[in-house]
Records
---
Amino acid sequence: MKPFDPHKKSQALRRFKPTRKPAGVFTIALGFCDASLLALAFFLAVSPFVMQPGINIALPESQFTGGARFGSMVLSITRGGWFYFNNERLDEAGLRAELEEQAVLRKNAVLIIEADERVAHGTVVKAWNAALEAGVKEVSIATRISALEEETP
């Protein structure tokens, strides 16, 4: 018969047996992935409601059906006679300096002038002349295409 060892039984009772496995790297990374996907879903859901800054311009109608080239510079003139170029509101002197700078950086770019239909003709001509004096090679005026009349058979 084996001799009785009192320490053997006490060692078995004192040994801790975990009931759960420790969290691994995969479990921690999965939590971060869940949080980032939730944040991405939130930003995608909210992004259409963010208002982009802009100005309202009612372009005059025209029969011209051409279009602007990609990479054109756009100058907007509001009813109040303000010039907007490269997301900045400029006066006539500031416009001339900015156009000179852009004409050097973008040598063959076309300038498109978007002027409200109620802007005085002289204001548009001042902008046109400032662009030509700055060295812009080609200037166009933006218009809204009038609706074509449908022929009924």
---
Amino acid sequence: MAGKCFEMKDALRYGIHAEIEAKEFYRIWAESVAEEHLKKELLELSDWESEHEASLMNYYEKLYGERCPVDPNMVVAPELKVQTKDFGDTTSLLRIASAAYLSEMRAMEFYERLEKESSGETAVMFGKIKDMEKEHMDITKKQYLKIREDVVGFRAF
């Protein structure tokens, strides 16, 4: 049992850091766009990631009686560490949108695995976060396809 708790502690810490990175990524992207609808959508994604972070932080504190230590140097998804200048270039935006989609897909798979390895209210919590990450995948895929359409001049799919 101690082994499982140790793995859960590491998984929660990893998840918290992933949510922090995603939150910042969407916030920075939102700051770089002129279109109000896109800015709103990206800020909403950032807010959702904040909610995930808070849920995981609360659960960590409940399980271990302490706040999860946040390491500002920990990088979970290096592809989300983009330069601000990249947001102005269409080709870079296409790469960024693709990275966002893949990051959300990995997050969904991560929470799906935690859901399967958990039970009770823990499994329910991870299941809800998994479902939200699936929604994020759909949103980022839509953005990717829109940017791609702008690059190639037609919708390929």
---
Amino acid sequence: MNKVRNTQKYSMGMADLLKNSEDLMVQVKTNLKEAENTSYEDRVFTYARGGPGGVIPFREASEKAWVALYQAVDVLIDHFLKHTVKAHYERKLKLRELEEKFADLASYRFYDRYAARAVHIRNNTNYYTSKDLEFLAWEIGKANELISDIKKLVSKK
């Protein structure tokens, strides 16, 4: 979303990027609400995959949550390691490096938390795994906690 086309650069600074992540997470709540109780042929579905009306907002919620999460993690890595991340795999490597170099950050378990959200949110944007809205909302809540922890750390140092 905020990456400059055909580059690994962002179109905004890191401070703005973190704020953008928070703004995206607000939009995610709206998308989840839109996907709730979708109906098709007089049947109400709680699963976004169940009815045509819920698929789009469900996917948008997943995509925006994923973008918000990786942007926030990129801000964290840039802040502590002064490194611009190029891709998901490198992001994981840098989170491991971050935890090895900064003992006080290891207790946050950034790698584990990011990797878990990647499986449950990122994969859902691409493969529509069998998650329902309640589970996706729970995962998004966990992503919000991670973004909040990153914001606290980046703003105090």
---
Amino acid sequence: MRPLALLALALLAIPASLAAQRSVAGTFMASRIDREPLPVTDRVIDADSTEYLIEFDRLILSLRDDRRFRASIRYRRTLFSSDPRGRARGTPLQSMTVTGTYAIDGDSIRFTPDETGETRGLRMQVATIRSAREISLPFHYRNGTHARDRTLVMQKRDDIL
């Protein structure tokens, strides 16, 4: 085989994962958790039997071409009250930001967070690229005695960040 043909074959083989990486790079916003549109409220109980309402308000995931990511989540965490008037009080939004690297293997994305005090013990899971405009991202969270495994459906948004 001619050297130019070998070079052409090598160049065709290398960009497959790079092309997938470039096609997925961009900003994604969670549209649903499981089948529920955001915001989603979940009731959890901590180790002291205190009940809380966790409201997931917004999650934005930015995937850059240099294989860096930034995930930003906004949520509310309030004490649960059996009195509906107590649940109506305004609770300030809290936020958490996680940065790190990501790697693409086929239709999977593996996230590795930067080590910080806020991310200690954080268990990142492997996301699935459903299309160039949609990612399915499983996540696990624990509050006291209750653990949850949920899935975020992330839609590519060209109008933010």
